[in-house]
Amino acid sequence: MKQKNPFFLKEYSIDEPYCGRNEEQKDLGDYARELKHTVLYSPRRTGKTALIKRVQKTLSQEGAVCIYVDFFGVVSVDDIAVRLAQAVFAETRSRETLFRRAVKAIECFRPITDNNPLQSEKQADTGVELAQGQVSGMDLLESVLRSLGKFIYESSELVHFALDEFQEITTLAKAEQIETLLHDHIHRHAAAYTFIGSRRTVLCRMFTTASRPFFQEAVLVELPGVPAGKMASFIARQFASQGKICDPEIAEQLVSAVSCFPYYCRKLACIVFEYSHNEVTAEDVENGISLLLMYEEPFFEGVFLGLAPGQIALLRAIAREPVKSIFAKDFLRRHRLGSIGGAQGARKKMVMLDMIEFRQQKWWIVDPVLEQWLVKNRVHAC
Ligand SMILES: Nc1ncnc2c1ncn2[C@@H]1O[C@H](COP(=O)(O)OP(=O)(O)OP(=O)(O)O)[C@@H](O)[C@H]1O
Ligand SMILES: [Mg+2]
After folding, report:
1. Angstrom distance (rounded) from CA 54 to CA 310
2. 162 DSSP 8-state letter
3. pLDDT at position 326, please?
4. What is the C-alpha separation between 328 and 307, in angstroms, rounded?
5. Which of 22, 91, 229, 288 is the most exposed place for a label (fewest CB within 10 A)?
6. Residue 336 — φ and ψ, nearest 5°?
7. Sheet holding 159-164, edge to edge
């Protein structure tokens, strides 16, 4: 039989094979049904978006209206307003009554549809254009939020919003005003919201700092890792489904090489599937890791472009030597990190970007593949 690689490399699709997470899926669904807001957080590439999409699929099958908005790369207040309106139109456009309700409620935008004959109606891109005479900036966002309130009020169905990378709103000018405005309206909406993010410190502080508007407004849900044994069996089964043998120990080796991060498990498995013969060997996994490091290099280099030399030096030092105190004189000297003041600034920024974390009494690089790349990459290491 022709062997088809079962590991996808494109963006997550709901039809992809999925491993475990039944409990988290059930909990998040239950919170939504009870109209409780939640904060879903975990490091990058660990499966938040995939999970919330599955939760929303289940809720949709029960009749709920589920709206997914991604705030990654958001650039302005207007952009937030556009993304919210667009997401509502995109979700409702295949259900006539709902779509009419959405169009009536959201007066400041008109939906425009880019009809591509190769896409189904559900997939077609839904854009928006500003209705004539409409405002901009905070007034526009306020208008959209008021409209959402109207839409929710007029819906007998459960309405669930997933706001992905929600912490990105804090990077905008007027961030405090935006946060307050969002809270003032969301607080009054009879809908369930899940706020999702990978910059854990920034996101969680929004909900745990007494002076912030969203203080104690949502249940904090930290997404745990998928148990390694479960992920290994899942991967072995995917190989078997296409007639390749991947013994349990080899699957475990693959999973542990990337600390069981779902994105990397999938990518490494995809590479190993491509280059292995009928039975996967330990050497195939080793070679796969080298290729994975090579494929991820442009991404890591892109991230580094936005960092200062002292921050890169700190990452390199921690990758090579996870340490209890970054400010210990020996550590600073050994890794040529300069002054304590400089290292303090670098640490603060790296925590904010969720690139380092303190666990098991030491500072570590969060991303297991970035860590390996930093250790191996001699060009950047001196
Ligand atoms: N439980 C799972 N089983 C199998 N594959 C998974 C699972 N969870 C996630 N994945 C895979 O890992 C990839 C990354 O997941 P996802 O995009 O959901 O992570 P994320 O935490 O949202 O990352 P980011 O913070 O970068 O947005 C997905 O494309 C998906 O294919
Ligand atoms: Mg995501």
Report:
1. 40
2. E
3. 95
4. 23
5. 22
6. 50, 55
7. 65-70, 159-164, 192-197, 38-41, 219-222
Fold (topology level) of 228-301: Helicase, Ruva Protein; domain 3 (1.10.8)
Q: Report domain extents, the chain.
A: 22-222, 228-301, 307-381
- Ligand 1, closest atom to CA 52? 18
Domain 22-222 classification at class level = alpha beta
Per-residue pLDDT of 184-241, as tens digits, reads 999 999 999 999 999 999 999 999 999 999 999 999 999 999 999 999 999 999 999 9
What pLDDT is attached to residue 124?
53
Q: Which of 243, 228, 235, 233 is nearest to 269 (CA)?
A: 235
* Residues 256, 84 contacting (CB under 8 angstroms): no
- pLDDT score of 382: 38
Q: Kindly tell me if the per-residue pLDDT of 299 is higher than 90.
A: yes
Whose C-alpha lies nearest to ligand 1, atom 28?
A: 12
Each residue's pLDDT tens digit, 90-142: 999 888 999 999 999 998 888 887 665 555 555 456 788 887 777 879 999 99
Residues with CB under 5 Å of ion ligand 2 are 49
Global pTM reads 0.92
The pocket around ligand 1, CB under 6 angstroms, is made up of: 12, 16, 18-21, 42, 44-50, 198, 226, 262-263, 266
